[in-house]
Amino acid sequence: MSAHDLAGSPSCTARAGEEVRAPCLATLYRQEFAFVWRTLRYLGVPGASVEDAAQEVFITAHRRLADFDPTRGSARSWLYGIARNTARHHHRWARRRDPQRLAAVDAEVAGPAADLAADPEAWIARVEIAEVVEHGLAKLDPRRREVFVLHEIEGLSAPEIAELLGIKVNTVYSRLARARTRFRAAIARHQARERGSHG
Known about the structure:
This protein has a domain at 1-101: Rna Polymerase Sigma Factor, Chain: A (Orthogonal Bundle), CATH 1.10.1740. It is an all-alpha fold. It is built from ten helices and no strands. It is globular. The protein starts with a helix and ends with a helix. The chain is 71% helix and 0% strand.
């Protein structure tokens, strides 16, 4: 989303002769809520907390609207930075509150309960896949995980990720290669343990 896209919204239009400097929060919310939610989820915020964390992102964005500068990046990259800081804050808080906390995959990630009744085998398969992916992501350090998620799950290109994170494109490729290797190894170990426990 560009500043131009935001400027097109009737409630975001500047007075004649003024440059639009701050995006309209309602437009940002409508267009970027799903992205923020997924970002928080894949940065390790548990499902039970992700809605609150997403609201926190948009509250922070509202407070900092005047800080948004479209010449420094897109509204999405600005929101991503806020979401990343919110996720870090959540992790620090969770460690202090419950240091033994284990990441659990929530049923909501796999789909609503109605799906369970309609096709229990497909629902169970989705839960199992979500557990495996969550396990693999949990084994990545935060910098590699965010590059991996942005590329493999969000579908962003290396140059887009570089802009979003403020790093070099070659750094993106390096982190992505290492993340893929580590993710595959974590998945293989997890599957081997699962086979061993069922065999």
